[in-house]
Every structure is written in C-alpha cells, then in structure tokens.
C-alpha cells in the first residue's frame, strides 16, 4: 500500500461556514462535492474536533464559498490553521448571512452554496454532512483554486485535521 | 438560486470498477474523495441505475484508477458513455485484478486505490459508497486529469447519470 496514491486525488478549495445561535464560524475544506443532481445535493467532510463541526451539528445548515485561484494565502491561513475557539475568524472579513443564516465569505469567492443537512455520516475522524442545496449564486469571475494549485504553486500545507492529511 | 455555482466545484477524473462473481465492469466517476485519514477511507458517488452500482452492491468492493491528464477522450467515452450491459468495457483494455478482485484499469492511470465498502449512503439518484482503503499504488507519472480540464480543454461532456449533470 502506497498512500502517496491518495495525493493524486483532485479537490477544490472552499470555506465552509455555519452558525450556532448567533455565533458564526468557518473553515477551509477541500472535500466539498455535489453528490446528486435532482434535487441538487452537496456534501462536505468535516473533522469532528473542529468548531465548524459543532456548529453544523447544532444548526443543521452550512455554506460553502468557492475560492478563487488568486485567494491570498493569509485568507486560507485564517480559515484553515486557526480555531474559532481562539479567534473570531470573521473579524474584518467581508461576509453576509445567507438564507440559512450561515455566514458566507464574500471576498475571493467565485460562487457560494448553502445547504440544509439531510444526513450525517460518521467516518471515523470526520463526519460527512450531506445537504440539500437551498441557495447558490455566482458572484465572481475567474478560475477556482484547486487543492493541487494551493500545494504546488502557493506552497500551501495541509492541517492535521484534514481528511487528506498525511504524515509523510 | 443559480445552479451554475455548482459548476465551479473542482473534481478529478477516475475509472471506478467492481465485480459481481467473475463479471467485471467500470465507469468514469468524478466524485471520488478521501473522507478520513486514519485509517484512510475514500468514497465514490455512483448512480443507482449504473451496472457498476449493482456490482459494488453485490461484491462490496471497488477500485479507482486516477486518470492522467493526457487520457484520450475515447477511453473516457468507453467508460463514461457506454453501459456494461451492452458492451464488455474491459475488452482490449490493459487491466489487472486487484487484491479485492475488482478490475483495475492500468493504461492512462497515475495511481489506483482499492477499497472495501463499510457504509452505503442513499442520496436520491446516487449512492455514496464509503470504503476503507485496502490497497493503493502509484504506477505512472504526470498530472491527474481534472474535471475542469476534461470540459475546457478536452471539450468533454457529462453523462446524464453523473451527480454533476445539469440540463443547462
């Protein structure tokens, strides 16, 4: 078994956000996909230890901002390598509350999606939140950032809490 | 709601294969992801009407070949736009049977993964098969083909049975 094979799976880069009461939080996520077409259903795989996990569990909603290729590394650092338990990640960030009242990051965002959770699947370290799409808009122009671009061009790293984290 | 937002989600391109007894089949798939790191768990979203769905349901195993960017369109056409009910998709294809006895496409493949299904999640038109990784190897060099590359550069199209199919 050579787990380097897993590194060749392709992903995008997203900020997945949610709320708990009037508290809001978000995190980078590379595992957002569409899993059904009619009606549109999306899923996102979130580490159980993350604050966003707690918020999605509580509110049953999440948003996803599809990041542009030219998103600055410090934006990804803010949402990917800090915890909402320590800092207010949305402080100084341009965002709005969506139809689900989940926050939606607007800067560096090509498009956003909002979903209501219909299923939760326990996969060990992570939960796959499966949600029916309730809102979606295109708000920017450009190429989406891929996970490969983030690693190869931006020299970005992977937090230990990501499904795709490998020690090697 | 603008479902064009969904088009900006990033995916790779894979051939996901399985078996039923000694019959084998495979199909293109863009929804393969890693969903947990320890142990490595992957998932693939497969249309309920597809023969590969029936085979994974039966055998509880699947393989995924991660396709290279220069994979010819006719390979994708063979696995993506034909049914194993009508043709033997592996006829003339270079493949091997893996540890799970699922077939693994070897040509145009950068790496492959094999998994044993541990959960099945009904998401309407599709099932998400979640599998623990039991084998994986890197067998080629190059860039993986992304779904965006397939559409933009290769001018490839999406079958109606894909989770990401849109009428528009």
What does this structure look like?
Two copies of one chain form a homodimer. Chain A has helices spanning 51-59, 73-80, 147-152; strands at 14-20, 23-29, 33-36, 41-47, 61-67, 95-97, 103-105, 109-123, 126-138. In chain A, the strands form two sheets. A seven-stranded antiparallel sheet of chain A has the order 2-1-5-8-9-4-3. Chain A is mainly β. Chain A has three helices and nine strands, in the order ββββαβαββββα. Chains A and B meet through strand 3, strand 4, strand 8 and strand 9 of A and strand 3, strand 4, strand 8 and strand 9 of B.
User: What's the total count of β strands of chain A?
Assistant: 9
Largest interface: A-B, 55 and 55 residues
Residue stretches of chain A low in confidence (pLDDT < 50, at least 5 long) are none
Q: Would you tell me the overall average pLDDT of chain A?
A: 93
Instruction: Give me the number of helical elements of chain A.
Output: 3
The percent of residues in helical segments of chain A reads 10-25%
